[in-house]
Amino acid sequence: MSWNVFLEEVADAQGLFEGDDRQAFLTRFAEQNLQHSYAQIATTLNISEVTLQRRLGKVYALFATTYPNLNTTNKGKFKTLRNWLKTVYVCYQKTGELSVLAIPSNVRVESSVSADITQKREEQQDFYVERPPIESLCYETIFEPGALIRIKAARQMGKTELIAKILNYVEQQGCQKVYLNLRKPEKSVIQDLNQFLRWFCTNVGRQLHKSLPINEYWDEEMSSNDNCSA
Fold first, then answer.
1. N or C: which end of the chain has fewer CB within 10 A?
2. Domain boundaries, the chain
């Protein structure tokens, strides 16, 4: 798996499903941008450096709940997070497991820091405003065969948080989850059914930590739909 694809999975695991913060994270930490300055990254995103710093600040705060070394006012958070992600990347290549949500055993977490992390998580949860019976309806519907839940609302209304809540609820019920962002594949992949279904199978396998040798079982003599469901 390439570094940039790894970043996509890390973003999904951390709840950065979509939006400006995700874009800032993926662009700043992209392999081709690791040596670039903030000014260059801001230009790439067509935003100001101040806006970039603000978005990355949110990213660092999110990752700090997983990696406490980021829970500091000191400078150098980019290098700190980059180095930690590289360590996680090496482990992922060896084990095939994304352990980004687990605090590494070699990281010492003081009790005061742990308390701050807990408080931050509670504060983040407070930002979500429940709108009964929407949540309960989603929890019920997600278990129906072939269910489709369409979430539509204005920006900053909690769509991403609701998705995260639904996925978390599914896991609590003992089910496995797969999150696919259809903005990830290139336009050429979306427009070609065969390429799209290969992309679909590959990503489902990765998130379920299953080895799927697509080239071995994908039979060109069969239809794409048959290959995908066989």
1. C
2. 3-95, 128-172, 187-229
